[in-house]
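Quick start: what a row looks like.
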Amino acid sequence: MHRLNLHNYREKIILYKQYRAYLFISVAIVIPLVMNLIFLCFLEISILKQINVNKVFKDSLNKLDVQMAPAYDFQNKLNIAKEKLEFIKTLEKNKTEMVEIIQYLDKSVPSQIYFTNLEISKKDSSVNFKGIALNPLYIAQFIDSLRESNGVFQKPLLQANSVLDDGSYAFEMSASIHNKTLKPEYESEY
């Protein structure tokens, strides 16, 4: 009778079960690692593509900013001009009778006349001028321009006229102010 040796067979079955367990554990670890590696590579490629798209977009924006710079500059200048215009409108709206009188004077005074004193009396509605002229003809021109100043200055009267040492002429003059010819919105309540 022969005896069968089953010991080796049993060892092989146990080793086979161990190999199967190791294979299962290895496959269970390796497959997710490979999948994660593939997913990581996909994400890296997507990030690189997005970085390139962002770079192109930034370059395009920079080029557009350079092209739009004149328009932005024009818009800034336009805003500054609007602010100045609003300021001028505010000044025009809020100016007093005194400013209105001085503006009428500016249109009437020849460039060769210089005032040394200017008194505006609101009680008497009169203006007293003291100044210097290079020639008596300029004083006469000034008197004529006051008479023709749309009725703002009435009855201009030369009170004094004298020759100075340097050959120029000092003068004193007065005129009455006709308030009705000033714009009503600028008339004060004095």
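That is the whole record. The longest strand covers residues 153-163. Residues 113 and 133 are 5 Å apart (CA to CA).
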